[in-house]
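To the team - DGJ complex, inputs and output below.
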Amino acid sequence: MAIIYHESSKIFHLYNDTVSYIMMVMKNGHLGQLYCGKKIHDKEDFTYLLEKAGRSMTSYLYEGDRTFSLEHTRQEFPVYGTTDYRQPAVEVLQENGSRISDFQYVSHCIRAGKPKLEGLPATYTETDSEAQTVVITLQDVVTGMRAELSYSIFEEGGVIARNVRLVNNGTASVHLTQAMSLCLDLPDCDYEWLQFSGCWARERHIRHRRLVQGTQAVGSMRGNSSHEHNPFMVLKRPTADERQGEVLGFSFVYSGNFLIQAEVDAHDVTRVLVGIHPSCFDWKLESGASFQTPEAVLVYSDQGLNGMSQTFHRLYQKRLARGCWRDRERPILLNNWEATYFDFDEEQLIGIAARAKECGVELFVLDDGWFGERRSDRAGLGDWTANPRLLPGGITGLAERMEEMGLQFGLWFEPEMVNKDSDFYRRHSDWILATPGRSQSHGRYQHVLDFSRKEVVDEIYRMMSGILREAKVSYVKWDMNRSITECYSAALPADRQGEVFHRYILGVYDLYERLTAEFPRVLFESCASGGGRFDPGMLYYAPQGWTSDDSDAVERLKIQYGTSFCYPLSSIGSHVSASPNHQLLRRTPLHTRANVAYFGTFGYELDLNALTGAEITQVKEQICFMKKYRRLLQFGTFYRLQSPFEGNETAWMTVSEDRKTAIVGWYRVLNHVNGNFARVRLAGLRPDYRYRSVSDGRICYGDELMYLGLITSDDTASETGMDVKSCGDFESRIYVLESVE
Ligand code: DGJ
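Output:
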C-alpha cells in the first residue's frame, strides 16, 4: 500500500495489491481523475490520460486555446458552470448571488493511518499501518473557501474511503448548497447499475439496469436512509457476476437524506456522485466556519460481486462497527413483539421467557409498550418510565427476574419520537419538528423530536441513561418508526433551516455516541420499522440492525440476499417467527424459518408456549446448532451462490477462515413435480481438501464441490404422492461440510 506524489507530473497514485487510484493537478489547478481500477505499476507520468482534443460546441477555459475544457475532463471535485455542465460535487452560493467557484490545488499532506471524523460515523484503523491518507487542499481565491479532500486507502482490499471538509477562510458568509462526499468520473459507461430498493417489509431488493446517457439515481428525502433505497450502489461490468469480473461498490456512511447518482454524458463518461441529498440542503458557513461531509466508501473488486461484498463485510465488521460486541458472537434472543404486541403484563412475559430459557435462548427482549400510557401506538412515546400497572417492579425489577432465570435482558426504545398524547409532549410541545402555520403531519400517530437541538438530545439522554444505569439491561433495540415531514426547527433562524435534516442526524449520532460510550457492554440493535435505516452510519454505533419487519422465511430470502451485498451477516437481524406468518399469513415449515434465520444474528419472534412438544424439540435443536456454528455463520466468509431474484431456488454459504468448515443454506420456494437432478456449485473451499457432509457422510474434494457441485435434489425428486417425505413448498436444507484432512 502506498500513496505516491510525483512532483514533476503533479500526479497522485494511491495503490495497494488490489486497486490503483490516480489523480493529477491539472493546468487550471483543479484535481483531475485519471484512473480507478485494478492495480497497475506506478510511474512518473500518466498525463497522457488527460483528453485534449477540441470538440465543437464546447466551451474552453483559456483564450486562444481549444485543448482544455472541463466538460471533457474527468475530475475529482468539479463545479458547475465554468465549462462543465454536469452535476457538480460542490456548490457555494455567495453573497452576490453567484454559484461559480474555482477550487485550485494549494498543498497536500500524506500521513499514515486514518484521522477520525468528528461527530460522524466512519471507518477507522487500529494501527497506522492499516491505511494511508492523503488530504489535498484546494482553494477558491475569490471566496476564500477551502476544500480539504481526504482519501484513505486501506492495506487490505480495494478500499478507498473519502470525505471532504469545507472551510470558509473568506470574510463573507456563504451558503453550501451542495457538498458531495465522493465524485468519480469513469472513462466509459459499460456498466450495469445495481441498486437495493423496496419499501417497508420488502427492503433491499436488487434492481438493475444498463447505464445509459442521462442521469440515474437513488436517494432519500425522508430524513432517514429509508426502506425505499439503500445508500449503496454497484457498477459492474456486464460480464461480471458473483464469482468473477470487475465491480465497483459505492457506500455512504450516513443515515439521513442521501443521493447516489450516475450521470453519463454524451461521450459516455460516467460521473458518480455520492453525498448528502442537495435538495433541502443549505448550510450557512460564516467566516471561519467549516463543514464536514460524511464518509463515502468505494470498493473495487476484480473478483466479482462476492469479492466486493466480502471486502465490505470485512471492513464494516472490523473497522466500522466498534466496541466489545464487534467481534463477539451475538446472543440468541427472544423478542416479544410478535408474541404479544401491546397486550402483555409481567407474568405473561415471565412465562414466555421461562419457555425461552428452557429452549436455550440467552436474551429476552422487551419490545414496545412497557412505558407511560403506551397501550397502543396512539400514546406514551416520550414517557420513558415503566408503566407500574404492567411492571410493578419497574424495568429494574423485571431485569432482575430475568437475571434470576439466567437470561440477559434487552429493552426497546424509540428515542427520537413523541406521541402528542404523552406527558413529555405536554411538557415540551415546542420540541417537535414543525413548520410554523403548517400542518403537523403524523406517522403512526407520532411526531419527530427536534434532535438538531442539544437540549432535546440531552433530555432524552437523561431519561435513557437513567434506566440503563439503574437496571441490568444488556441490549437496546433503538427504533425509529416514521419519516420526517414539515422539517423545521424552532431553534434556528430562517437562513439556517436548510441545515435541519443534517443537524437532526448529527443529534442522533451524538445520542448514540454518548450512550455507547457510557454503556460499552450494552449491545445496540438499530431498527426503523424494520430496515428503514439499515445503513453503515448506524453500524458504527449499533453492530446489528433489524433487517426488516417482514419475518416470513420466503420474503427474507430476497431481503437478506440483497442486504448481504454490502452488510456482514453479523449485522443482519434475523428471527424465526410464527406460522402463519404475521405479515403474509404464509405457512412455512419451522426448519425453513430457522434455516433462513441462521444466516444472521438469530433469534425468535413468537411465543414458544404456543408451539407443540415436537416443535419445542426442534427449537432446542436449532438453538444447539446455532450455538455450535454461530461464529462461522456470523463471521465466516459469505458467498452468494444462487439468487432468489432469478429463480425458484436460493443458495448461499459461509466458510471458516481456515476453510476447514463450511455451511451451505439451500432453499426452494415452490416444489415441482419430476424436477431436474439439481446441484449447486459451491465456492471458497480448498480444492485439495476433502469435505465430509455431516448430514449424509458423503466425502467430496473441494474442487468437486466447487466445479461439479453439491447435489441438492433428493431421492424423491422425481416422485410425487404419499411416500414423498420432504419435498413440499418452502423446503430448505442446511449442509455442514467438515474437512477430514
Ligand atoms: C417497528 C419494529 O420494526 C418492530 O420490530 C417493533 O419493534 C415495532 N416497531 C414496535 O412498535
